[in-house]
Amino acid sequence: MPELPEVETVRRSLLPLVKNKVITAINTNWEKILINGLATFQKEIVGSEITTIDRRGKYLLMRLSNGETIISHLRMEGRYYVVKDANTPFDKHDHVTFTFQDGSQLRYRDLRKFGRMRLIKTGQEDQVTALAKLGPEPTPSTFDETEFARRLKRHHKPIKSVLLDQTVVAGVGNIYADEVLWLSQLNPLQPADTLKSKEIKTLHDAIIQELNAAIAAGGTSAHTYVDAEGNRGSFQNALHVYDREGTPCDRCGTTIVKIKVGQRGTHYCPHCQPLHQRRRPA
């Protein structure tokens, strides 16, 4: 699943390809992707132009000139790309097409058909429950360390599971949770409410730094991810533990192992990331 760095990279690569283009048609062969239904999309967005694309967590927000926003979640395999000629042959996994006034098309491809698009009035995004519950963006100006510590103290669940909870911090998924825990030398099974203040600070800073580094590298193409122009990211070359089970730890040489935490595949170094048995705070 694309995480924050990949979605941000898609946003940056897609925007110059569609900005200020007028939509003349929208069609789909898998209507479940369009939560409001095809008829509503056709009625509301045809004739409007895409003015910009924002992002919140793992969601793309396509802003339209008519005061509407298309909220898009790529889920596991979704991707956008643009063709200059609407007569360009379709791929069998192309499920939604936006035709523009200049004859080009924005196409949404999704092998598993899990992605979703929802139309809503701009400024009313918080009416979508998933968006309303999102935690802060992991930037220095929005991701407050004290508030992060307070949220961690609410949970006795493993820290890996808490990081994947989008209400605590937005945009961290399986890849980057493993990586920031390795950087912070925290065991993924460590109960969140047992972390010390120094460990919380280290983790907080690692989240910001790691996601920024991944964005700068165009994201992680560990599986099928590419940006809107078909380019792969390069951050997979900088990963320390994710998908590296059976290889030596970059820090100590111990073999990286893979376990399940909350039903999610999880990679860590047993030596660098020991599990500390600590009592819950009174």
Automatic annotation (TrEMBL):
> Active-site residues?
P2 (schiff-base intermediate with dna), E3 (proton donor), K58 (proton donor), R264 (proton donor)
Its catalytic activity? Answer: Hydrolysis of DNA containing ring-opened 7-methylguanine residues, releasing 2,6-diamino-4-hydroxy-5-(N-methyl)formamidopyrimidine; 2'-deoxyribonucleotide-(2'-deoxyribose 5'-phosphate)-2'-deoxyribonucleotide-DNA = a 3'-end 2'-deoxyribonucleotide-(2,3-dehydro-2,3-deoxyribose 5'-phosphate)-DNA + a 5'-end 5'-phospho-2'-deoxyribonucleoside-DNA + H(+)
Required co-factor(s) are: Zn(2+)
Alphabetized, the UniProt keywords read: DNA damage, DNA repair, DNA-binding, Glycosidase, Hydrolase, Lyase, Metal-binding, Multifunctional enzyme, Zinc, Zinc-finger
Record keyword S-adenosyl-L-methionine present: no
Family label = Belongs to the FPG family.
Q: What is this protein called?
A: Formamidopyrimidine-DNA glycosylase
Q: Which organism is this entry from?
A: Lacticaseibacillus paracasei (Lactobacillus paracasei)
